[in-house]
């Protein structure tokens, strides 16, 4: 732009000089000189027009260049905004990545804690199983001990084949006895048996299963009811009288 203005300035200066020369010549020169001077003025005018065209062209180029500069500035500003937005997006994404990493770390910690809890629970289950097995063994051992003790108790306990009253004991604690030796005399009180003798005259009226009334001289108020269970087929003679043994069973009153 500065060069173009300089050219215009030079052209204007040349035009001024040519005009002055023309004016001077017109005042005292011939026609040939005037023609030459007019040609010089014309050439100066053409140079001025050419310089003006260059100035106009330069102005247009300058305006176009300025437009391109403005467009470039706008593009640059837009690019900067996009860069800033991209940076913000990147920062936001980075924060999301960090948050995701923290969430992942926390989840991994929870998984590890759960795994440790599971292992601890598994150990406790194993300990409980071992304790259960040990308890079962102890229960089995206790049952065996109980069975052994019960067996020993049963072997040490003398059990009669019927309920009754101990009439006599023929052994003391610590004595050694054999299996065939009788050490206790037991009376069955549930059913008592009375042995009587009936003479040959009355025996014909006695039958097995017959009801019998028992009276005791020492207890006149006591009357017992019994049943004939046995009549001996053989009699024995005493003082010329034949006597037959008869067994009568009766229940002892409570």
Automatic annotation (TrEMBL):
Q: Where is this region: Disordered?
A: 81-101
Subcellular location field: Cell envelope
- Primary place of residence? other
Regions of biased composition (Basic and acidic residues) lie at 81-93
Instruction: List the InterPro entries.
Output: UPF0194_transport
Query: A Gene Ontology CC term for this entry?
Result: cell envelope
Keyword flag Repeat:
no
Record carries keyword Coiled coil: yes
- Keywords for the protein's UniProt record, in alphabetical order: Coiled coil
The entry's protein name is: Uncharacterized protein
Q: Which species is this record about?
A: marine sediment metagenome
């Amino acid at each position: 732009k500065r060069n173009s203005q300089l050219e215009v300035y030079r052209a204007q200066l040349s035009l001024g000089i040519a005009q002055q020369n023309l004016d001077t010549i017109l005042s005292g020169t011939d026609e040939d000189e005037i023609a030459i001077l007019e040609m010089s003025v014309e050439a100066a005018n053409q140079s001025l027009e050419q310089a003006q065209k260059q100035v106009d062209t330069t102005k247009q180029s300058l305006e176009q260049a300025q437009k391109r500069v403005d467009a470039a500035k706008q593009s640059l500003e837009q690019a900067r905004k996009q860069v800033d937005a991209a940076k913000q997006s990147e920062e936001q994404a980075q924060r999301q990545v960090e948050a995701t990493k923290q969430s992942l770390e926390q989840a991994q910690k929870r998984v590890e804690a759960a795994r440790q809890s599971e292992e601890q629970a598994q150990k406790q289950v194993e300990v409980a199983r071992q304790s259960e097995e040990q308890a079962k063994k102890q229960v089995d051992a206790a049952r065996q001990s109980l069975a052994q003790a019960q067996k020993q108790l049963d072997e040490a306990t003398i059990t009669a084949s019927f309920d009754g009253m101990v009439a006599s004991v023929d052994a003391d604690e610590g004595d050694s006895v054999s299996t065939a030796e009788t050490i206790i005399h037991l009376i069955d009180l549930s059913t008592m048996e009375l042995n009587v003798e009936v003479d040959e005259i009355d025996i014909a009226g006695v039958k097995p299963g017959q009801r019998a009334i028992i009276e005791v001289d020492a207890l006149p108020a006591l009357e017992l009811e019994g049943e004939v269970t046995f009549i001996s087929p053989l009699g024995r003679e005493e003082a010329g009288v034949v006597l037959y043994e008869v067994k009568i069973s009766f229940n002892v009153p409570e």
